[in-house]
Amino acid sequence: MVGSNTVTATSRLLLICFAYSFTVFSMISSVTDPRDAAALRSLMDQWDNTPPSWGGSDDPCGTPWEGVSCNNSRITALGLSTMGLKGRLSGDIGELAELRSLDLSFNRGLTGSLTSRLGDLQKLNILILAGCGFTGTIPNELGYLKDLSFLALNSNNFTGKIPASLGNLTKVYWLDLADNQLTGPIPISSGSSPGLDLLLKAKHFHFNKNQLSGTIPPKLFSSEMILIHVLFDGNRFTGSIPSTLGLIQTLEVLRLDRNTLTGKVPENLSNLTNIIELNLAHNKLVGSLPDLSDMKSMNYVDLSNNSFDPSESPLWFSTLPSLTTLVMEYGSLQGPLPNKLFGFPQLQQVRLKKNAFNGTLSLGDTVGPELQLVDLQDNDISSVTLSSGYTNTLMYIASFFLNVQSNCLYQPIKEALSCCRLEGNPVCTTALSNTNYCQIQQQQVKRIYSTSLANCGGKSCPLDQKVSPQSCECAYPYEGTLYFRGPMFRDLSNVNTYHSLEMSLWVKLGLTPGSVSLQNPFFNNDDYLQIQLALFPPMGKYFNRTEVQRIGFDLSNQTYKPPPLFGPYYFIASPYTFPADGNGHSLSSRMVTGIITGCSALVLCLVALGIYAMWQKRRAEQAIGLSRPFVSWASSGKDSGGAPQLKGARWFSYEELKKITNNFSVSSELGYGGYGKVGF
């Protein structure tokens, strides 16, 4: 019975020891708040293609799960750009109460409507859902996110109106709703109702490529604003251009093209002295041409396809020193063309077809060194005067922007000028009609820029891989398309321009030199510069998931800034191919610490258990000795002088009793008991 108690006590101590070790291990390694862990587990159950590390444990912060960032036990950032996620964004996201950054960009498989529970993320500072497949309306609850500074919902399929509640986002500086199917007017505050006019810290209003309608409210703009980009192109706005735009002295890019705006251009737009790009093309504007003489920083201006009053060339044609591109096609300009226009040092393109310029075209004695294109088709030019100093070729590229075969004219002219056209002018219908000015000859267009692979000796790769310009090895690059909404140049033949972009990309994205490839730059129908981008891993064939998430975030969050020459941009990534068996993950340092500490506690418990077992054994032996009071005198020694030990009750035979009592001698008697004599 004593032995049984010993085993029970030992087992109990062992269980306590293991429980203690497990508790210590859990306290150290399982650090994620249970609410956050449950929310992330629920999201994982609704998404396909989550990273392999997801679900490896119930501890997203301690293990950790890829794309999850924590502060102590709470999840503070979720970055899953370009992971190939498929599914819906459910209301479980609202349980991540400490979330400050949510980036799910470039996951086309994320579809369905946005949950209103995004409004529960009260500490959210960055929300990037660009390049996904979300539909439905933008939830009003996004207006609850008072700490939000960056909101990118562009390139989805959102419909409905812009929520007036977004006017509550008083800390937002980036608001991008472009390339959706939004309709209705721009909301303006009224009484207790908010509106976008309250966003005084905003620098970017990107609403282009939607179906927004109504007038552009004058109240939307004020002198308190610090906007630098107002992109409203490609909508259905009507009415006049609000004069309040002229109050925003910080404005650098103003695009109102491809709408149905009417009325006159406000005179006070001339106050926008920081303007770099002004595009008012493809509207129904009337009245006199605006005076842009004070816009000394302007690189690009397009006033084409409007209904301005007939007039001669405005003075500012010859007074804007930073001008690179002048576009005023399908207009009502008339009279001679000032030859000073062609002498601007940075001028690259002059596109004035379908006007009424007349008289003699004279390019003057000085043609700007960057001038590439002069397009004067369908005017009323009767003659051309060229200086005898021109020594190179004058040619027209009919499909310059489409990167296909070209039609070219040859005539001696200065080296820089490479493209010109005069068809449809009287000079081409007179006796001079056989001159080279009016004859179209087939020539191959200049090769549009692509990053050189000359050092790779024509190496070929499987269809799903590409040659790295750095290592000349086949690899899986991170690919996508860069869209520059307002570049300061239109010359696509200058390789130095692309070299600066390549260097900027690998330096600012933390890649190795030469790991960037640019392909096929061209201006698309929206007049955006479009470039195919490929980024190659520094080693091996693949980027790991952490690197893909980082690059995707840097490009979607505008952390990466291109050279100023390229202006505002956005990026849409292609799906990335991850290796099927290369997604193993190692234990975190916190996990290792937990394992070491738990094992140490277990060893201490085992040592304590051993000591306890030895002590219990000694006690058991003592208890057994006390339970056996008689031992053989022969074994103990009669003359030993020691007291007999109690070893427990036992039976003695008659012969043993006779021997012990010395044949029942009287000298062995001790006294009398209830059953007779007692002796030893």
From TrEMBL:
Catalytic EC class: transferase
GO cellular component labels: membrane; mitochondrion
Transmembrane segments: 591-615
Gene designation: VRLK1
InterPro entries referenced in this protein's UniProt entry, alphabetically: Leu-rich_rpt, LRR_dom_sf, LRR_N_plant-typ
Superkingdom of origin: Eukaryota
Keywords: ATP-binding, Glycoprotein, Kinase, Leucine-rich repeat, Membrane, Nucleotide-binding, Receptor, Repeat, Serine/threonine-protein kinase, Signal, Transferase, Transmembrane, Transmembrane helix
Protein name according to UniProt: non-specific serine/threonine protein kinase
GO biological process: one example: positive regulation of unidimensional cell growth
A Pfam short name: LRR_1
Keyword Membrane: yes
Annotated compartments: Membrane
Known EC number: 2.7.11.1
GO MF annotations in UniProt: ATP binding; protein kinase activity; protein serine/threonine kinase activity
Domain (Leucine-rich repeat-containing N-terminal plant-type) ranges: 34-71
